[in-house]
Amino acid sequence: MLLPPPARPHRVAVLAFDGMAPFELGCVVELFGLPRPELDLPWYDLTVCAETLQPLRVVGGFTMTAGHGLDALATADTVIVPGVADVRGPVSAALVRALREAYERGARMVSICSGAFALAAAGLLDGRPATTHWRYATLLQERFPAVRVNPSVLYVDDGDVLTSAGSAAGLDLLIHLVRRDHGPGVANTVARRLVVPPHREGGQAQFIQAAVTPVEDDDAVARAMAWAMDHLATPITVAELASVAHMSERTFIRRFKLRTGTSPLRWVISQRVAASLPLLESTAAPVEEIGAAVGFESPVTFRHHFTRAMRTSPSAYRKAFSP
Prior knowledge:
Residues 222-320 form the HTH araC/xylS-type domain. By secondary structure, the chain is an alpha/beta fold. The chain has helices at residues 22-33, 93-105, 116-121, 137-143, 168-182, 184-194, 218-230, 238-245, 249-260, 264-282, 287-293, 299-310, 314-321; strands at 11-15, 45-49, 56-58, 62-64, 78-81, 108-112, 129-130, 148-149, 155-157, 161-164. The strands form three sheets. A six-stranded mixed sheet has the order 2-1-5-6-10-9, sandwiched between helices. The longest helix has 19 residues, at 264-282.
């Protein structure tokens, strides 16, 4: 009896360019280029390509040479653009053509930070929700008005086209891709190898408007946060949190916001949603039971806050990410 041929590794092509910063490219290489035999499944086949095979200048004072030209995009299953050299300048006709051809062939298109400008120049973001680094969001909208720019989120998954905000948000999106391709268990294993959180939802805010300032009562706030994590399944009030921190409610709210950028109750809600994720992924418990287990007073409240945070329903999340 003939055995079926082994599954072909998923081909990922990432674009290098002259004048790039190395972090975003390094994240792609770390996620998709590093062999992971401990996972016992076909890992990704990564190709680094560029518009030229000449040495490319990299921020930090060194150069690198890509081993492949833009022709590598023609066989890629996923194409990743980690940035552009100039957010105000034109994207070359050759790159636009290569991106469009890859997309029309069925490749999944991904951008990190300013890479959204390349996808937009190729027309791949027209009529779609997309994001980029918050510093560039206004410019992206001005240059490409057909794009539905969301400047507030970490990343946007629009099916076959995905965009992320700057740097670390790109890492969140890359782990999200692993999660989509191989499930939460594999994504969590990879995240542990990287020593990063296994999941930050794309709808999370990119940054906190208020400056983070030192607070002498940080230990007290942290103590209240730790107490809340131990009591998520029970009703939690600001008065209780303030009591644990040995502060007045007014002082606690002010110092909590200085530390976290949000209010105590909003933070508690986000922790409850986060606590529901592994239960949805790994158990068959009804959604109503899971909501109650993490402290939501009713199924309606759970679904409301979950959908607001995750941009999907608990049932749809379970269908997408449970084994």
